[in-house]
Design goal:
By secondary structure, the chain is of the alpha+beta class. The chain has two domains: about 70-150, no CATH class; about 160-370, MetI-like fold. Helix content is about 60%, strand content about 15%. It is built from 15 helices and five strands. The strands form two sheets. It has a three-stranded antiparallel sheet with strand order 1-2-3, with no helix packed on it. A two-stranded antiparallel ribbon has the order 4-5. Helix 3 (about 35-50) packs across helix 15 (about 345-370).
Amino acid sequence: MVKEGHNKVNDKKVQRIDLATHWQLMWWKFRKNRMAMIAAALLGIFLIISIFAEFIAPYAPGTRNTSYLQAPPMKVHLFDDKGKFHFQPFIYGWVNERDPVTLKLRSVVDTSKQIPLYFFHQGGSYKFWGLFKSNLHLFGVNEGMVNIFGTDQLGRDVFSRIMFATRVSLSVGAIGVFFVFIIGLMMGGIAGYFGGMADELIMRLMEFLRSIPTLPLWLALAAALPREWSALKVYMAVTIILASVGWTNLGRRVRSKLLSIREEDFVLSARLAGCSDARIILHHMLPSFMSYIIVDLTISFPYIILAETALSFLGLGLREPIVSWGVLLYSAQNIHSLAQIPWLLITGLFVVISVLAFNFMGDGLRDAADPLAK
């Protein structure tokens, strides 16, 4: 009886696999990868931050706390200095004192003053995605300002700036990947499907682009941007520059796949049915290995983010008033900042976590792309 019940369970499992689509098989295998699932959850958090940056950030990226310049992160407390528990989270107040040795003005915690921290707090007004006006924030205080990641040289809230920078950096990656997707599919599709002279020309172009050192090429193209351009023009130009030299990997992958399947029976059937070349490529050939394309795009995402961060860090990419991870790190590149304001490097943690998350999720998708492999 036990063996018979076991066989029934196995039969149901086999029947479930036989009836599942390719995407269902990919999802079942992907969710078995614990690190990939954790990475996907972290990227989901970054996505939420990008969408709701105005709500999550207590202040606008340019809002200054002039009485708390270059000050360390404020600690959120549930227990006071006497050990008493408080249901309402709070921060301590501070007073500015002059250092007797260096004569530098510094902020000192005042434990005699407790400032309650409120969630879903009504603070400064903003336009959510430029569509409708609101003043609701995830958290805030009624008195003074709360700076849980500290402030920079001008007294601007580092936490709020990182929230807005997350949106910009991830949007650069998303738009860059979109352009990589379009250019890679078009160039790789033409080379792999038609072959001949078109294949030769496109492959030589790929080899030329891949032979140029990436960072000097980015630096040269970014340095050519006019300094008088608006922030929006620079944003779009940097995104297009990163995509224009990043499509070669996807193009080579698409070409190799099309070369291997262009003589398959389903392609010949489509030709005999009178389908156009564009329809055969877009509706028959590319969908047959779309999962691999998604894996390639996922893996290329962090490279575009790192490229934008590197260019902005060197002062050749995005620049104020746009805030990105690279722009924030640009202000922390000198010895004074590292010594006096080390909390500016918190931005680097967001870069590292996002890149690792994309890599782990890409590895999980790479394994899931072939769901029947052991």
